[in-house]
Amino acid sequence: MANTTNYNIQKPDVGGSENTWGSTINTGLDTIDTTIKTVSNAVPTSVVSSNLTDTPNSLGTAKQVLRVNAAANATEFATPSILDLSETPTSLGSSGQVLKVNSGGNGVEWADDDAGGSLSGYATETWVGNNYVSTSTIAGYYTSTQTILLAIGYIPRTYTSAALTPSANSYVTLTHNLKAKGSAAGASTTSVAPDLVQILFKCTSPDLGYAAGDILHWQDHFAETNSIPYVIVESGNTTTMRLYYGGTGYYHLPNKGTGNAGYTNGGAVGKWQLIVKAWAY
Fold first, then answer.
1. Is 276 within the bounds of a domain?
2. Whether 170 contacts 176, CB under 8 Å
3. Can you say whether the dihedral through the CA atoms of 183, 189, 193, 199 is positive or negative?
């Protein structure tokens, strides 16, 4: 008698197996039935079933991917992260940093954004040698107009005083931070006198139509010349200047609404402060 190739089930001979072919077929059918049942029991009912080896027990959440776990002994669903990519930093950088190729050209790293596009970028990379201030404070020294000057390489040095409360017939000495223009190789440490000085009037309490916080770019020329404040830069003095508050400490300024002249605070000290700005070119 011949047998099947895979499971070696005996087959009756064609034209033979007299009185035995029935038992042979029945035995073969029993073997087939048993084998099919064994295979059926081994097949999982779901592709996410825990019956499968080293697979998650359930589906992950939206947009997750199936990956090998950290132990490399099973698979798992996980949310993709830039930190999982090769040749990337192992942690996030700090606020304001950018991702750039490292100096070795073989990976990426977090670094401060000093490539331009902002005032701090210009100062750090090109002009800090001529600005004479630290990079941490550079942005506070320049207006939007002066930012354009930075871009073309023309950089005035600037000093701004605190808001000063005047008093009658008195002076205050102001120490400025103006330095001589240096070279691209480094900052100058030589102090210079200002080339331009301006006195600003800052309202601290509603007066003459102005609101607290309003700043008036003006020189008192209406009347009462002894009320005019002015700045003295003494010959040979390259580090300080003197602000004279005027003979009265109150001022004759144009009304915000009408333009008519009037004494600040009704002719008494108060409601206004002075700010001195100075530039060296």
1. yes
2. no
3. positive
Are both 231 and 201 inside the same structural domain?
Answer: yes
Using DSSP's 3-state secondary structure scheme, residue 275 falls into strand
Q: How far apart are CA 79 and CA 220, in angstroms?
A: 68
pTM over the 0.85 mark: no
Tell whether 166 and 146 lie within a shared domain.
no
Q: pLDDT tens-digit profile of 204-224?
A: 999 999 999 999 988 756 555
Whole-number Å distance between alpha carbons of 250 and 85? 68
Give domain status of residue 105, yes or no: yes
> Which residues, at least 6 apart from 187, have a Cβ–Cβ distance to it below 8 Å?
128, 129, 130, 131, 132, 179
The β-bridge partners of 207 are 210
Residues 146 and 167 in one domain: no
HSE, side-chain direction, 13 A CA sphere, residue 274: 28
Question: What is the extent of the structural domain holding 217?
Answer: 157-280
Reference 273, options 184, 186, 207; nearest CA is: 207
Q: Rounded CA gap, 256 and 261, in Å? A: 10
Same domain, 199 and 238: yes
Instruction: Give the CA-trace dihedral at 79, 81, 86, 88, to 10 degrees.
Output: -170
Q: Which of 155, 183, 201 is the last residue of a domain?
A: 155
pLDDT digits (tens, 9 = 90+) for 150-202: 444 445 678 999 999 999 999 999 999 888 775 443 456 788 999 999 999 99
Ramachandran quadrant class, 144 (left: phi over 0; alpha: psi -120 to 50; beta: rest): alpha
> Are 141 and 225 found together in one domain?
no
Place of tokens 């320049």: 142
Q: Does 234 share its domain with 264?
A: yes
